[in-house]
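FAQ: What does the model actually see?

It sees only this:
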Amino acid sequence: MDAFTAGILQRIKNAEQDLHRALESGDEFLAEVEQSELEDLRRLAAEHGVDPVREMHRTAA
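And it is asked to produce this:
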């Protein structure tokens, strides 16, 4: 896995965790911010041919 792929996957994982925490705490504004960040990261990954779901399953195996 190259550095870009590893970096974008880590950023997606972090954003997912941050979104989950925001939702758990009831912070709607932060949840919206984190959701937007997550969407941007997923779009960026897709533009570069990275499928976050497939890559995360591959690294977990």
